[in-house]
Design brief:
CATH architecture of chain B: Orthogonal Bundle
Helix content of chain A: 25-40%
CATH architecture of the largest domain in chain A: 3-Layer(aba) Sandwich
Structural class of chain B: mainly alpha
Distance between the termini of chain A: 33 Å
Strand order of the largest sheet of chain B: 1-2
Oligomer: heterodimer
Order of helices and strands of chain B: HHHHEEHHHHHHH
CATH superfamily of the largest domain in chain A: P-loop containing nucleotide triphosphate hydrolases
CATH topology of the largest domain in chain A: Rossmann fold
Number of domains of chain A: 2
CATH topology of chain B: ABC transporter involved in vitamin B12 uptake, BtuC
Number of strands of chain B: 2
Order of helices and strands of chain A: EEEHEEHEHHHEHEHEEHH
Structural class of chain A: alpha/beta
Number of domains of chain B: 1
Strand content of chain A: 15-25%
Number of helices of chain A: 9
Largest interface: A-B, 31 and 20 residues
Radius of gyration of chain B: 19 Å
CATH class of the largest domain in chain A: Alpha Beta
Shape of chain A: globular
Number of helices of chain B: 11
CATH class of chain B: Mainly Alpha
Chain lengths: 245, 290
Amino acid sequence: MPLLQLEGVSKKFGQVVVAEEITFQLDQGAAVGIVGPNGAGKTSLFGMISGDIRQDSGRILFEDQSVGSMTAAVRCRMGMGRTYQVPHPFERMTVFENALLAAQQGAQAHGQKSYDLAFAALERTGLAELANRPAGSLGLLHRKRLEMARALATGPKLLLLDEIAGGLTDPEVNELIVIIRGLRDDGIAVLWIEHVVRALLSTVDRLLCLASGRLVADGPPSEVLASEEVRKVYLGGKIINEAAI
Amino acid sequence: MIWVNVLIQGILIGGFYALFACGLSLMFGVMKVINLAHGDIAVVAGYVAVFLAPQLHIPEVWSFIIVVPIFAVAGYLIQRTLIQKSIDRDPFTTLLVTFGFSVVIENLLLEIYTANGQSVNIGALIGDSIHVSNVIYISYISLAVLVTAVVVLAALQLFLSKSGTGRLIRAVADDREAAQLSGANYRHIFGIAAAIAFATVALAGIAYGMMTEFAPTSGGVNLLFAFESVVIGGIGSLWGTLIGGVLLGIAQQVGAHINPEYQVLAGNLLFLVILGVRPHGLFGKKTAFS
C-alpha cells in the first residue's frame, strides 16, 4: 500500500496555475526530493497535501484514505508532519513547549508520554540543551531544527520538508542531512522540497521536478537532473552545488 | 481627603471595566475578532439573572452560578457557528455580523422586556458600605466586583500561562496555521476562548446589574469603556486591561469631581492621549497573551 497518492491534483489561484493534473505516489519509508524553479508550485503542493489549501480537483490519499475534506489538524494526527520554509515557531513559548504542544495535539499523547515524546524529538534534532530557551531567541539553524522537532513530536509517518536547508551554511546543511537520513533510516517517509540539490542527492532515492504546476520529471535523481526537460525549465540556469557529497 | 475618595472610587469602577473588557481583549487577541455585540451579551446576562433565575428558584444574587456556565456554552456554540463562519470569509464580515448580532439582541430585549430599567436584586447589600471617613465610603458591592475582577484576571492569567489548554490558546493566537500543523484544531480552541469571553462578560453583566440599573441599550456605552480599557492597557495583556480600566475609572472620577458633566469626557481624553502617545497601549505586546 502506498503511503501517499496524488491523483490528477489541480489548483489555480485566479489565472495562475499552481498544480495541473499532478499524479504520483510515495511508498512507506521512501525518501523523495522535489526540485523546480521558483513559482513552480512546490510549496502549494505541500499546502494541498498537508491541508493548508484545498485542491480544485483530483484526489489525495493518505494510507488509502481520501483526505480531501480533512483539516490540516486531522491530517497531522493521521501522521503527516510538515515544516515551513520560513520557520513559524511559537516565539514566546520555550523550545520544549513548542515540541510538547505538537506531541499532545499531533500525537495525542498525554502526561509523561507527551513529555517523553517532546524531549525525544528535541534530542533527535539536537535541541535538548536549548529546551528552556524561548523559541523567539533562536537563530535560523535552530529555528529550522525546531520546525523538524515539532513535526517529529507529532509522530509522523510522512515528513514534508520545505526548503529546510535554505539559508544555511554548508556545515549547517550537513548537520541537518545527518538528522534527516536518520529519520529516513527509521522508516519515516520524507518528501523534501529543496533548492540545495547537493543536500537532496545525499538523502533521496527519487526526484520529482515541478515546473509551472506540472510534474515534468519523476525518477532516479541522476536521470532527472540529466533530462533535457529539467534543464530547460531552469532556463539553462545552473543547479546549485550539483555534485553529491 | 476628597481626592483620596476620587481615587478610590476610580479604582473600584476600574475593576468593573476590566472585568467587562477582558473577554473582548481575549476574543481579539486569540481570533482577531472585534465582538461588537460584547456589551449586549452582558446585558442579556443581566436579563437572564433578573427574569429567568428566579423561575428556577435561585435568588438573583446567586444567579451567576447558573448564568455564567450557560453563557460559556452559548459562547462556544456561537463561535463555532456564527463567528467562525464569518472568520472564514474575512475580517470585515466579523464586524458586520457581530454588529448585526448586537442590533438583533437590543431589539429583541426591547420587544420582550421593554425599555424600563432593571437591576439585579441583592437586598440590603446595595446600600451597605465601609465608612472610612466622612468623605470616603467604599460600597460592599463595588469592592466585591473589584475583588472578583482581580480574581478572574489572575485565574485567567494563570490558566493561559500554566495549563495545557492555555498553551494551546497562546499558540493559536500566535500562529493558527502553525498550530494546525502541530495537530491542534484551532476552531475548537477559538470556541474555548469564546466560551471564556462570554462567561466573563456574563459575570460583568450581572455585576453591572447589581451596581446600577441596566436597560436593553446599556451594552453600547459599556462596550465603549471596555474598548478604552483594552486600548489604554494594551491589547493582549490581561494585567494591562486591569490597569487600563483603573486609569479610565480614575480619569472619569476626576472629571466628575470637577464637573459631573465631564465624567465621560475625561475618560475619553485620557484615551485620546494614550492613543496619540502610545498607540499600542501601556503594556501592549506583539504577540497576545504571552
